[in-house]
Amino acid sequence: MFGFLKKSVDAQSVAADSAALPAAASAPAQPSWRERLKAGLARTRAQFGGKLKSIFSRGKVDDELLEELETLLLTSDVGMEATQHLLDELKTRAKRDKLDTPEGIQQALSAALHDLLLPLEQPLEITSHRPFIIMIAGVNGAGKTTSIGKLAKYFHGQGLSVLLAAGDTFRAAAREQLQAWGERNEVTVISQQSGDPAAVIFDAIAAARARGIDIVLADTAGRLPTQLHLMEEIAKVRRVIQKADPSGPHETLLVLDANFGQNALQQVKAFDKSISVTGLVVTKLDGSAKGGVIAAIARQCPKPIRFIGIGEGIDDLRPFVARDFVDALFEG
């Protein structure tokens, strides 16, 4: 009996001692998307947000402040129209709210920028059709094929089945790259060694319909807006998609490299004219100080920004959220 009690007491002591010991080291918590976005926008923030404090330090919205702010916005690729809009908004809010502190002025600019970007925050709705056909275009080097791989991962994570169409038949590396993404995401890739890109995508849509696939991501070859024969070819791809499915493509995404700055506006306008762009994917924001171009897009050619990319990782492409983006620019 006493032995039993002793064992019980010993067990209790061990339990107490164990409770007193520090918990075993666990795997470090992964940073949240907001934290990763803030880190990814470090270059733009250093160019933009880092200089605001000195500009706002005088604590009043006067001509000198507005002139310095105009210079800063323009050098951050915000563009003339968006810059003038933000300056006018700041003057209006300063007069209305009697702003007289650096913090108040910065909050007013942050609010004005958020209001400007908010209409671009339109999450992609993919439940209207099955398969939901997404045509993806962009200039050479914008990160188009990589973005397709990341989109496949994102949609797969939402419990949706995905099929990739290797419509870039000109560049063998593009097909190989897409095949690698397909294997990584465990999704099927429809491709051909050569031939008409429209035919590849047509076959992919037929395969997706036969297999009950939710989403078709159709890659296209990179091209410059000035290459008129290639712009006509991509318009043909769109027409062939409509033959395969009269309601398609259900989304036409243009991939933009943030490093292009103001040139991105011309890309949006040119591709929209050829293939009716319905949404944007802005990539490489982590490698650029030109994140302000999103404000220029909002003012000059407003298209929904469906996704933004801030790194090379497979999870570094997420839906655009205006509040998160603006906070990442202003937070020190």
UniProtKB/TrEMBL annotation:
<dbReference type="GO" id="GO:0005047">
    <property type="term" value="F:signal recognition particle binding"/>
</dbReference>
<dbReference type="InterPro" id="IPR042101">
    <property type="entry name" value="SRP54_N_sf"/>
</dbReference>
<dbReference type="InterPro" id="IPR000897">
    <property type="entry name" value="SRP54_GTPase_dom"/>
</dbReference>
<keyword id="KW-0378">Hydrolase</keyword>
<feature type="binding site">
    <location>
        <begin position="283"/>
        <end position="286"/>
    </location>
    <ligand>
        <name>GTP</name>
    </ligand>
</feature>
<keyword id="KW-0342">GTP-binding</keyword>
<dbReference type="InterPro" id="IPR013822">
    <property type="entry name" value="Signal_recog_particl_SRP54_hlx"/>
</dbReference>
<dbReference type="GO" id="GO:0005525">
    <property type="term" value="F:GTP binding"/>
</dbReference>
<dbReference type="GO" id="GO:0005886">
    <property type="term" value="C:plasma membrane"/>
</dbReference>
<dbReference type="GO" id="GO:0006614">
    <property type="term" value="P:SRP-dependent cotranslational protein targeting to membrane"/>
</dbReference>
<keyword id="KW-1003">Cell membrane</keyword>
<dbReference type="InterPro" id="IPR027417">
    <property type="entry name" value="P-loop_NTPase"/>
</dbReference>
<protein>
    <recommendedName>
        <fullName>Signal recognition particle receptor FtsY</fullName>
        <ecNumber>3.6.5.4</ecNumber>
    </recommendedName>
</protein>
<dbReference type="Pfam" id="PF00448">
    <property type="entry name" value="SRP54"/>
</dbReference>
<dbReference type="GO" id="GO:0003924">
    <property type="term" value="F:GTPase activity"/>
</dbReference>
<dbReference type="Pfam" id="PF02881">
    <property type="entry name" value="SRP54_N"/>
</dbReference>
<feature type="domain" description="SRP54-type proteins GTP-binding">
    <location>
        <begin position="304"/>
        <end position="317"/>
    </location>
</feature>
<dbReference type="InterPro" id="IPR004390">
    <property type="entry name" value="SR_rcpt_FtsY"/>
</dbReference>
<feature type="binding site">
    <location>
        <begin position="219"/>
        <end position="223"/>
    </location>
    <ligand>
        <name>GTP</name>
    </ligand>
</feature>
<dbReference type="InterPro" id="IPR003593">
    <property type="entry name" value="AAA+_ATPase"/>
</dbReference>
<dbReference type="InterPro" id="IPR036225">
    <property type="entry name" value="SRP/SRP_N"/>
</dbReference>
<keyword id="KW-0963">Cytoplasm</keyword>
<comment type="similarity">
    <text>Belongs to the GTP-binding SRP family. FtsY subfamily.</text>
</comment>
<keyword id="KW-0472">Membrane</keyword>
<comment type="subunit">
    <text>Part of the signal recognition particle protein translocation system, which is composed of SRP and FtsY. SRP is a ribonucleoprotein composed of Ffh and a 4.5S RNA molecule.</text>
</comment>
<keyword id="KW-0547">Nucleotide-binding</keyword>
<comment type="function">
    <text>Involved in targeting and insertion of nascent membrane proteins into the cytoplasmic membrane. Acts as a receptor for the complex formed by the signal recognition particle (SRP) and the ribosome-nascent chain (RNC). Interaction with SRP-RNC leads to the transfer of the RNC complex to the Sec translocase for insertion into the membrane, the hydrolysis of GTP by both Ffh and FtsY, and the dissociation of the SRP-FtsY complex into the individual components.</text>
</comment>
<keyword id="KW-0675">Receptor</keyword>
<feature type="binding site">
    <location>
        <begin position="138"/>
        <end position="145"/>
    </location>
    <ligand>
        <name>GTP</name>
    </ligand>
</feature>
<dbReference type="GO" id="GO:0005737">
    <property type="term" value="C:cytoplasm"/>
</dbReference>
